[in-house]
Amino acid sequence: MAEQMDAQALNMVTTTVASAADARRLAQAIVQARLAACVQVEVITSHYHWQGALQEEQEWRLVCKTLPRATGALLALLESLHPYTLPQLVVQTLQATPAYVRWVDGEVTTGDGVAHAAGGA
After folding, report:
1. Which of these, 60, 82, 67, lies nearest to 34 by C-alpha position?
2. Which of 121, 114, 117, 98 is nearest to 34 (CA)?
3. Measured between alpha carbons, how far is 80 from 20 in angstroms, rounded to an integer?
4. What's the predicted TM-score (pTM) here?
5. Which end of the chain is least crowded, N or C, by CB within 10 Å?
6. DSSP summary character for residue 102
7. Any idea what DSSP says for residue 51?
8. Sign of CA dihedral 6, 71, 114, 112
9. What is the SS3 assignment for 3?
10. pLDDT by residue (tens digit) across 30-86?
């Protein structure tokens, strides 16, 4: 029988960087630290004002899937490693299927280096 589809909370943290190398470096650091189960990297074009001038730049957006309990540590890691003076650090609360949240829960640590064993998805 199909699993009940009661959605559960999941956090998505996004940031952007100016190079593929920086995106790869941050993504690997995040997953290695087990602060997100998955980091997706997308190439985007950003339009914004910075230091009085209109900018149009290619950037790489990192989309990190994590749990509320690990979000603070993930943000602290990003702040410490980020190459930007003022990085975009955006947290969104999402709803996901229980099976996916169990997988994320099994991959993300509580901050003590120990992942929860919540079953696979």
Report:
1. 67
2. 114
3. 18
4. 0.85
5. N
6. H
7. T
8. negative
9. coil
10. 999 999 999 999 999 999 998 999 999 999 999 999 999 999 999 999 999 999 999
